[in-house]
Amino acid sequence: MRQILASTLLLFAFVIALPGHVESGSSVSVVVNSKVSAENISFDDLRRILLGDKQFWEGNNQRVTLLVRAAKAPERTVLLDKIYQMSEAQYKQYWIAKVFRAEATSGPKIVTSNKMACDLVKAIPGSIALVASADVPPGFKVLKVDGKKPGDGGYRLTY
User: Fold this and answer.
1) Alpha-carbon distance 65 to 59, whole Å?
2) Taking a C-beta distance cutoff of 8 angstroms, is the pair 78, 28 a contact?
């Protein structure tokens, strides 16, 4: 019995340690290029930016570049569920229609990892990405959302 319990606990610990495992209650940070003047953003403004309705940053009038994780990434799930309130199919149709109506020149740039998102945020002025808070390197600019940072009570971008 003890051997079965020990084996089960060992297996559980191994699964938790696997890369890509997402713990409930983890947060997603809004990471922006260091030249973006904002420090705090309202949830409504964040939604308008990520929907492509607001295409320039206030203050320096710099163009927004959207960087979005590929389908099935936890950050994409947060984007779809909490911000867009759309399914994956609705999201794709939304961006096809937006580009077709010439309301945007292109859809968001797709990134395959949080590291890639951070590398591009660092390199592209005006860029923004949702990155798992645990994967944000030191020194990156993380916006507060409605005055709250990741980990604060009431922070809205958790999964």
Assistant:
1) 16
2) yes
